[in-house]
Amino acid sequence: MLSNHLQNGMESAKLLWSRLPNSEAEAEGGAADDLGRYKKNDGSAIESLDYEVIENSAYRVEQAKRGKLYMGYSVMMKWFFSLLIGIGTGLAAVCINISVENFAGWKYSLTFNIIQKSYLAGFLVYMLINLALVLSSVYIITQFAPAAAGSGIPEIKGYLNGIDTHGILLFRTLIGKIFGSIGSVGGGLALGKEGPLVHTGACIASLLGQGGSTKYHLSSRWLQLFTSERDRRDLVTCGCAAGVAAAFRAPVGGVLFALEEVTSWWRSQLMWRVFFTSAIVAVVVRTAMGWCKSGKCGHFGSGGFIIWDISGGQEDYSFQELLPMAVIGVIGGLLGALFNQLTRYITLWRRNYLHKRGNRVKVIEVCIVSIITSVISFGLPLFKKCTPCPEADANSGIECPRPPGMYGNYVNFYCGSNKEYNDLATIFFNTQDDAIRNLFSAKTIHEFSAQSLLTFLVMFYSLAVLTFGTAVPAGQFVPGIMIGSTYGRLVGLFVVSFYKKLNIEEGTYALLGAASFLGGSMRMTVCLCVIMVEITNNLKLLPLIMLVLLISKAVGDAFNEGLYEEQARLRGIPLLESRPKYQMRNMTAKEACGNQQVVYFPRVVKVVDVLSILRSNNHNGFPVIDHTRSGETLVIGLILRSHLLVLLQSKVDFQHSPLPFNSRDGPVPIRHNLTEFVKPVSSKGISIDDIHLTPDDLEMYIDLAPFLNPSPYVVPEDMSLTKVYNLFRQLGLRHILVVPRASRVVGMITRKDLLIEDNEDSPSVELRPTSVRSLCCFTPLY
Amino acid sequence: MLSNHLQNGMESAKLLWSRLPNSEAEAEGGAADDLGRYKKNDGSAIESLDYEVIENSAYRVEQAKRGKLYMGYSVMMKWFFSLLIGIGTGLAAVCINISVENFAGWKYSLTFNIIQKSYLAGFLVYMLINLALVLSSVYIITQFAPAAAGSGIPEIKGYLNGIDTHGILLFRTLIGKIFGSIGSVGGGLALGKEGPLVHTGACIASLLGQGGSTKYHLSSRWLQLFTSERDRRDLVTCGCAAGVAAAFRAPVGGVLFALEEVTSWWRSQLMWRVFFTSAIVAVVVRTAMGWCKSGKCGHFGSGGFIIWDISGGQEDYSFQELLPMAVIGVIGGLLGALFNQLTRYITLWRRNYLHKRGNRVKVIEVCIVSIITSVISFGLPLFKKCTPCPEADANSGIECPRPPGMYGNYVNFYCGSNKEYNDLATIFFNTQDDAIRNLFSAKTIHEFSAQSLLTFLVMFYSLAVLTFGTAVPAGQFVPGIMIGSTYGRLVGLFVVSFYKKLNIEEGTYALLGAASFLGGSMRMTVCLCVIMVEITNNLKLLPLIMLVLLISKAVGDAFNEGLYEEQARLRGIPLLESRPKYQMRNMTAKEACGNQQVVYFPRVVKVVDVLSILRSNNHNGFPVIDHTRSGETLVIGLILRSHLLVLLQSKVDFQHSPLPFNSRDGPVPIRHNLTEFVKPVSSKGISIDDIHLTPDDLEMYIDLAPFLNPSPYVVPEDMSLTKVYNLFRQLGLRHILVVPRASRVVGMITRKDLLIEDNEDSPSVELRPTSVRSLCCFTPLY
């Protein structure tokens, strides 16, 4: 049926396509990605990743290097890179933490020294230091690394879902993120350094994956191993997990965060590598902290790293306590949903009115926010009447009063007597880490008055909303924990008064409050639960945390989407959710395509035609058809725009003859450097305007057969769109061809056709360490 | 192009197919299952699950009940069932634990009383009690519930992968599992109750899902809600998680176990429900334990439930210790792989020589194993010279010596002096839970001599291998922990002697040893890590556990497959692995089908033809074709064997006319009770021999259009088999039609075609609590 030349073309295409390397990546050849060029409604195009092209050519690159030895080397390198990501992210986290703690410690000790003489001078110094730090941060962001603003988690989520927001994984973004978050967190704004650390981990991973930054001449050829998009995304996933593991010293939490929250396509092989990366981070951070214990790191060390150990706290709970805990869950859901809603409005407002006016407005805005924060955090405690210290308990080891800023409860701030403390200053005039430690602290019943907690809650909540979306790196974890633990402690206060039991700790309620607010705002479940357990080092409260999270997430879901989804939507990152939309069930594949005109390429195409077709539309993939001898058309594959652009630019595959290459003459000669097909991360690739062709070139032909993907996924035209959606989403596809119903069935594939025994000396030996379930098998036994 | 009657038929098919209910299940209409009838090599057919049929008809059932109200009710019921599963599994676990502890406690106290007078009489009593308990267990299994033998995890894994081994989820299996494991664990065999508890959880979930057991008249109509296979599998997944959560009191470990180890198709919505079930289990178990604390549960309570708390142990570790820890990892990998290999041989040997001879042999075998176990565990300590008690440390609260059996270290057994203890008896003449507690114990340096540990390791390892595969419920977790902690403690012994540091605890090494053996044998990663942390209640050792697991799994993978995969393979459960086989990369879809003859049905088919086709082969699905007016054939869908059998049996859809139903006459009348299509779990459904047709019936026709699946997944014939495999595995399909290349492309679907905004008042309000990422959206903002 097929004409001869078609048959030949098909064979040569198959020839190339079937020369698949024995790589892990290949093993899931189909489970690729993603998406065409997606137009944001505001007109700017979001660059999407050219997955299929890269894979196509990556295969050949790997093929070129061929052999099992190379395969083993590649697997080894993947593990080596995971190690590097772990070390890099761990060091970045340590560096950020040491800097922040030192800036903050120095700031508070200076301020404290001055307020011994004058509160006004102290305030001015405090405000100016904050302003200077924040200014450094916003300067870096606006001048150098605009993509480093915000938490970065929505963008990373988008990247792993298949949408490459420009610039998020550049070297300058990494630098901006690290130094920016030192400034913004050290400057006392109501934001955290944990979200940025996730972004930092992802940047480190991505830069390693592409072999450094070309722009800053930091690239290295021997590092440029990971030419396939899948490998790069795997590395970024490792980086995210490493970020969480480093931020919270929660290695399992990191793995689960990467699994539950960030990735869109999870492969069980990857889990193992992500797990390894997290373990490395834990070891690196622990080593650095051990080194710092001797006092070499200045103010860092004693209070140190995040981890609010409450393992000395409440051991048990009674059934009566479940009611107030449920109340905490409900409050968390409500306040979390409100937070998402308010931040949405303020982000919209900023985008539409403020940030349009340029960088100067952004800088001024951040400075104003910083001044407001300084005024409130310094000023409000001044109006708070001091409380007498509780009677000293020799065993508890709790000192009262203490100087303000860092390490410990019962801060003496603007108090008349020496035996008094200012409870509002204890949490407000302090770094957030230490404020949380104070809020979580056990054996300090009634340290905080309801009035102070309520004041703090309202003020801090407003500050957190106000700060959200300013042009500095900003995480929402720590502010969320602050807010949550405040109302949690408030509820705890009432529970202690009401139930009058001694074994109830307000700190426990503060922890549950923190979990509930994060659950109500971010809507994470298992990973949040594990993170909370890991940062508080208390496994006994696990069922309670689960309960509170269940309630707060359910309440929050009744109102709006999670924070990251909402922010991704606002930033125009169209995440493809894991389930199809409701109305898809009544649509067919054909209806989804609408009335779009399908633009075909013939197998051998004139260069001038290619150019005009590429200019006339912005499709990202084109079906290629050929004719059988009997004149029927036949779809022989899919060619990608970016692929065509590479062909046009290199010109080496041009031919004078309009006849296809005949495979009887030998294998298709591959005339060009196949790495050309690999598109760098965060770059736009070749544009059609970059291509300059002579009139002679335009008259030549290209045989597309060697370059097309000969078996794209197809669906019949009347398939339900929910099914199509699942196919697209689960396999991470980029294009699906909609074709008419088949006229006959060649065969049926069922489970038994896919249960092939693996009895050659396969290269799985090298693969084993990476696979959760080993490929290796025994010879058949039964 | 289509003929009129074809068009009508298609419309009516689409009509039915598109009347999809707005259910959660529907939302992933495509992500179904699975597999044809798979022939084991030994000839017996494994029943596979008819997923598509059930879905098909389940849709209609739900459609019939229609409406959002029903949807809300159904979601609510899913959560309610999760609650019930949690409570049920928690209670089963408590019940098993109380019984085992009481039997064991009573056994040891009786034996101890007797050995005061005569060691021989004591031994006889000890042996006979063990024998009686084990006999009761093996009797239940062989006579009543053969499917309850073994751990059950491979079978459950198979079920969730799509293979229904007969009888594993029956009510009798549940009963057999509970009482059988009480007998076998109480009888002191070298096996655990944790694997069986996972199976128990799965059984409870499955029975609830199908509304009770019909056979024992325990079913209830109002419970029969979950007619879809997916819902049932979701429940079973919840049950597995509940089982682990109950067995180890490790709720997060349970969720991860279900995610990593058991399920094949994971949906993020499910995670949330699994999480809830685990939390419920934790609460139930905790409540029951609180209730038992007052001494109402006999011997249960003080030592109690599994959880070997080592939170009082080693707090820190130095870099020097990483080397011996790595050694533990390597030992774990080697011994684990050896264990898998030996159990494989012994299972094969049993199957081929022993168990063929019937139940009597099985009973005798278990009795012999029991007697050997009793002899070794009682006899060996007699030959061990007693050790003088260490100098008493008033603070440690450790008493020396103690009476043998349960609770505590330093057991006085066959010792001359009153100030001596027998270290071998401390671990050997004891329940496994308490032996592990002793091995893990901190502040008991040099309690065990290297000689005793080595003796115990060799003997217990042999016993564990010998016991594996006998006809009693048997888990491998606790024996694994026993073996691992023995050599771990042995390494710890050397480390303590070598490094001479005081803060090194042998118990820590025992824990790491346990993790390493489980990692080397079962090859789990994240979930095992979390389970180990949860059962020891010590988060600080997390990075060390991770490290040890990484090494032991890598070492083990170099030799063979994980224990469960190996056992599944031996039992003829053909698990479809998550990655395609190596040689698939060189095959096409067409080659995978081989030369099989595709058997078609025409749209309207004579009953006699249906019968003869069904008799002539054992295919499970058949393409249905129709003719256009121009005479071309067209594939209009796929009909399933089981579906046809229901049609043949009910006869209500027979018609006299050979013409298809015309949709202009109104919607297709559905003439029969649609629940008939729902196949009960663990039953074979209708057989072709059950169908009795009169000669008149045989001359009638059936119009298949309303009953077929109008859009099965298709692949072009020359698609790479790796791609086909991924499609099949990721979407959990059962049939893929291989079709010729398309002649034209109707359209292309890319990401932007699937980003439909959801702006109707969708029913997602009811869905929200179940979705991790809410469906709800705002109106477009940008």
UniProtKB/TrEMBL annotation, chains A, B:
Domain CBS: 587-654, 708-764
Compartments where found: Membrane
GO MF terms held by the record: voltage-gated chloride channel activity
Record bears the keyword Transcription: no
CDD domains: CBS_pair_voltage-gated_CLC_euk_bac (cd04591), ClC_6_like (cd03685)
Membrane-spanning parts: 79-100, 120-141, 235-258, 270-289, 322-343, 363-383, 453-471, 477-499, 511-535
Keyword annotations from UniProtKB, A to Z: CBS domain, Chloride, Chloride channel, Ion channel, Ion transport, Membrane, Repeat, Transmembrane, Transmembrane helix, Transport, Voltage-gated channel
UniProt-listed InterPro entries: CBS_dom, CBS_dom_sf, Cl-channel/antiporter, Cl-channel_core, Cl_channel_pln, ClC
Topological relation to the membrane, as annotated: Multi-pass membrane protein
PANTHER family registered for this protein in UniProt: CHLORIDE CHANNEL PROTEIN CLC FAMILY MEMBER, H(+)_CL(-) EXCHANGE TRANSPORTER 7
Family of the protein in this entry: Belongs to the chloride channel (TC 2.A.49) family.
Name this polypeptide is given: Chloride channel protein
Species for this entry: Buddleja alternifolia
